[in-house]
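QA checklist item 7 of 12: single-chain prediction sanity check.
[x] sequence parsed
[x] length recorded as 336
[x] structure emitted
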Amino acid sequence: MNFKFLLTLLVALLCTQFIRAQEGMPVYSDYLVDNYYLIHPSMAGAANCAKIRLTARQQWFGQDDAPKLLTMSVNSRLGESQSAIGGIVYADKNGYHSQKGAYVTYAHHLMFSRSVTDLNMLSFGLSAGFVQYQLDESDFLNDTPVRDPIIGGIVQSEINFNMDFGFSYHYLDFYMHGTVKNLLENSGVNNDLQITSNLRRYLFSAGYVFNKFGSSLSYEPSVLFQYKEATKESIIDVNAKVYKDMAFGTIWGGLSYRHSLDGAEYLTNSGAIDSQKLNQITPIVGVNYKNFLFAYNYTYQTNSVVYTNSGFHQLTLGYNFNCTRERYECYCPAVN
């Protein structure tokens, strides 16, 4: 039994056990590209325009079967009501693993403003949808005469239903969001492994936009905190963005720093056990031209032990339609 076969068999066993450990749509830095609805269902219809956003993310250029993600989201108010709807479809592929998902969202916005100019809004949102997980085992056997009953040599597939729930609060230039993703446990999937049945993730974000009266520049610091219930992992994003108003729209840029509060252990060349925490830096640039949005971000992992030095590229295209006039006297890009 040669080394190649042993390695293939090991990969197959691991992949079969953890095919359903994927956690739905990954949380990257795309929410910073005027796309908070992608992670917070309560942001559906929160803005004065209906929005379409397309994102494409490619990791590790030059590597075979490198991870890539495609998403499309749309959300809008229902006329002049306080209700809104939205939808998200995505496709995520990582080597032999892939997943496709579709969610629909209902959101409701409660206004506490004294007038239409003062922003004071509490929002709730609920998303429900299906995710199809797949594992392609067709290349695992490699025509070897030794077979393992756990490897079928086919494309395994499983479809799960789940829900996300969240809230948002906007007060003038301040905002905060909280969301619970993957509310339901899929007890029929790998129910012998609790860590793969409970994919619940908690997200909390907050930020403020600083703008001096009469100035064309605005500054937006923000944070995002993530907590995974089953594995007890915690991750924090610290973000900063700057906007400059132009005659045709807005140009903007920013920087995001992601840090894991929990370390991963690995074996050094000397045989000792060491650990490192995830550290990523993501610069972002974008432009709003009339009703169109174009943005690009690049994520670089600063850890010493990485798969490759090649980073992660992401492109976002957006379009705003059915816009009303700016509702509020605040510089709040996600709403006005």
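[x] summary fact logged: Helices lie at 3-18, 194-197.
[ ] second reviewer sign-off
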